[in-house]
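Q: What residues go here?
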C-alpha cells in the first residue's frame, strides 16, 4: 500500500531518525573510549589538569577578590580580567610559531613559566597597570600551554586517535577546574597565599610535562600547518560530547584551544544565511554573559550575601555534574534537533540570570535564590556548548574547518568586548547591570536562534564528513 503521508513529513521523519542514529553512534563510541582510559591517556595530561586547576579554578576566584579587597575599585576587576581574556587570544600566534619554528616544547614550558611568574608577582605589585599587564601575561601563558597541548596530540598521535585523546585531555582540564574551585574556597580568606600556592602548583606541572611529552616534533611547511589540519580533520561534533570547563566569560579557554581567525574572510559570505544568524546569536550570548563571569565571585559576595567559599564550592559541584552532561546534550540534540536544544539552553540561562536580577526588586531571600540562579547558569552550559558545535557543523555553507574558526572567533571576541564593558557598567549602575546585560544578550541570542533548525538540515554522516575533508574548499 502506497504511503499517503505528506512528502515533507516523510522527509522530517527520516531526518529525525538519522539524527538519533548519529547520536547513538557517538554515544556508543564515547562509551567505548571511556571504558579504556589507559589507551588514550598520557602522563602529561596531569600537567594540563593542573593548568585547569590554576587558570579555570583558582585564578578566576582569587584575582577579583584580591582586586576589590585591596583597592575597592570595582571597575578594575573588568580591566584586569579583560587583560587575561585578551591574552588567551594569542593562541593563533603560538600555533603559527610552533608550526614554523618547531618550538612546541619551549612554548609549552615557557607558557607555564610565564603563568607561574605572573601569579607569583601579582600579590606584591598592586596597581591597575601592573595587574593588567601581569594578567595579560598569565592569559598568554595559559593560551600557549593550551594550544601546544592540542598540537602535541595532532603532531604525535595517529589521526584516528585525535578525538579520544583530545576528549580526555579537555576532561582532565575540566576535572582540574573542579579541584581548583574547591581549593579556592580554602584560600578566599588569604588570597595572597592562594595565588602563591597556585604558582607553586605549576612546578609539578612542568615536571610532569618533562616526563611525558614527546621530544621532537614533525616537520611541517606552511602549506600543511598543523592547526589547519586539526580544524579541518577533527570530528568536532563527536569531540563536543566530552566534558570541559566553562569560566571566564563562557568558556574562552575552550575557544583558545582551536581558535582560528582565518575563517573571518568568509564572514561576509554567511551573514545572510542561517549560519550567519547563528554566529550573531552566539556572539550576543557570549557578549552578554562575559561581564557576569568576570565579576561573579565578588558579585555573589557583595550583592547576594553568598560567601566566596560557598560560591566556589557550589561552582565546583555544579561543574563536576556538568562534566557528565555532555553526552546527554548529544543525545538530546540527536532526538530533538540541535536548534531546539540550543534555545532550551538559552532559556535555562535566561531563567538563571532572571533570578539574579529579580532579587534586587522583590523582598525575597537573596542568598538561596541567587545560588539557584547560579546553578542554572552553569548547568545549562553543556547543552549550549554541544548544540552550538552541532549547529556549526550542520549549518555551515562551506568547510567545517573555516566554520569552526568563525564560531570560535565570534565567541572569543565577544567575550573580550563584554568583559571590558563590565567595568564602566558596574561603576555607573552597580551589580544589577551584570545580570541585566546577560538577559539582554541571551534574549537577543534566543530571538536570532529562532528557525535555525529546518526540516532539511540533516546531520552530517561520518562518510559525509570524510568526503568534506577531501573537498577542494579545504585546500583552497
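A:
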Amino acid at each position: 500500500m502506497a504511503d499517503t503521508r505528506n512528502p515533507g513529513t516523510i522527509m522530517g521523519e527520516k531526518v529525525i531518525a538519522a539524527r538519533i542514529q548519529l547520536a547513538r553512534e557517538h554515544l556508543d563510541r564515547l562509551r567505548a573510549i571511556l571504558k579504556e582510559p589507559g589507551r588514550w591517556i598520557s602522563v602529561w595530561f596531569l600537567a594540563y589538569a593542573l593548568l585547569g586547576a590554576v587558570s579555570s579554578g583558582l585564578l578566576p576566584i582569587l584575582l577579583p577578590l584580591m582586586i576589590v579587597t585591596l583597592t575597592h575599585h570595582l571597575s578594575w576587576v573588568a580591566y584586569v580580567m579583560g587583560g587575561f581574556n585578551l591574552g588567551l587570544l594569542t593562541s593563533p600566534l603560538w600555533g603559527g610559531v610552533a608550526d614554523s619554528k618547531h618550538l612546541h616544547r619551549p612554548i609549552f614550558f615557557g607558557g607555564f613559566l610565564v603563568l607561574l611568574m605572573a601569579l607569583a608577582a601579582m600579590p606584591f605589585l598592586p596597581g591597575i597597570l601592573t595587574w593588567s599587564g601581569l594578567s595579560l601575561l598569565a592569559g598568554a601563558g595559559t593560551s600557549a600551554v593550551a594550544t601546544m597541548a592540542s598540537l602535541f596530540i595532532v603532531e604525535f598521535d595517529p589521526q584516528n586517535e585525535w578525538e579520544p585523546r583530545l576528549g580526555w585531555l579537555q576532561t582532565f582540564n575540566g576535572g582540574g577546574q573542579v579541584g581548583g574551585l574547591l581549593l579556592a574556597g580554602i584560600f578566599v580568606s588569604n588570597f595572597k597565599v592562594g595565588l602563591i600556592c597556585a604558582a607553586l602548583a605549576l612546578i609539578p606541572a612542568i615536571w610532569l610535562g618533562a616526563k611525558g611529552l614527546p621530544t621532537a616534533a614533525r616537520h611541517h611547511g606552511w602549506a600543511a600547518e598543523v592547526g589547519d589540519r586539526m580544524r579541518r580533520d577533527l570530528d568536532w561534533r563527536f569531540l563536543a560530547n566530552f566534558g570541559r570547563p566553562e569560566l571566564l566569560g563562557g568558556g574562552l579557554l575552550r575557544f583558545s584551544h582551536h581558535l582560528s581567525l582565518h575563517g573571518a574572510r568568509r564572514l561576509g559570505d554567511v551573514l545572510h544565511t542561517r549560519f550567519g544568524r547563528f554566529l550573531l546569536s552566539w556572539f550576543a550570548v557570549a557578549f552578554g554573559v562575559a561581564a557576569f563571569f568576570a565579576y561573579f565571585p565578588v558579585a555573589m559576595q557583595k550583592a547576594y550575601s553568598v560567601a566566596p567559599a560557598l560560591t566556589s564550592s557550589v561552582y565546583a559541584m555544579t561543574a563536576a555534574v556538568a562534566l557528565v552532561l555532555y553526552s546527554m546534550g548529544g543525545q538530546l540534540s540527536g532526538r530533538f534537533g540541535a536548534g531546539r536544544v540550543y534555545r532550551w539552553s538559552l532559556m535555562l540561562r535566561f531563567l538563571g540570570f532572571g533570578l539574579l536580577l529579580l532579587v534586587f526588586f522583590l523582598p525575597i531571600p537573596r542568598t538561596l535564590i541567587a545560588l539557584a540562579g547560579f546553578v542554572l547558569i552553569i548547568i545549562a552550559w553543556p547543552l549550549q556548548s554541544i548544540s552550538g558545535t552541532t549547529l556549526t557543523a550542520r549549518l555551515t555553507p562551506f568547510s567545517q574547518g573555516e566554520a569552526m574558526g568563525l564560531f570560535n572567533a565570534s565567541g572569543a571576541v565577544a567575550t573580550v568586548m563584554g568583559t571590558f564593558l563590565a567595568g564602566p557598567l558596574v561603576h555607573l549602575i552597580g551589580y544589577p547591570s551584570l545580570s541585566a546585560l546577560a538577559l539582554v544578550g541571551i534574549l537577543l541570542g534566543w530571538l536570532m536562534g529562532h528557525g535555525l533548525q529546518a526540516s532539511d538540515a540533516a546531520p552530517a554522516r561520518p562518510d559525509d564528513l570524510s568526503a568534506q575533508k577531501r573537498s577542494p574548499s579545504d585546500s583552497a
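A: Context that may help when evaluating the design: The first helix runs from residue 7 to 35. The radius of gyration is 22 Å.
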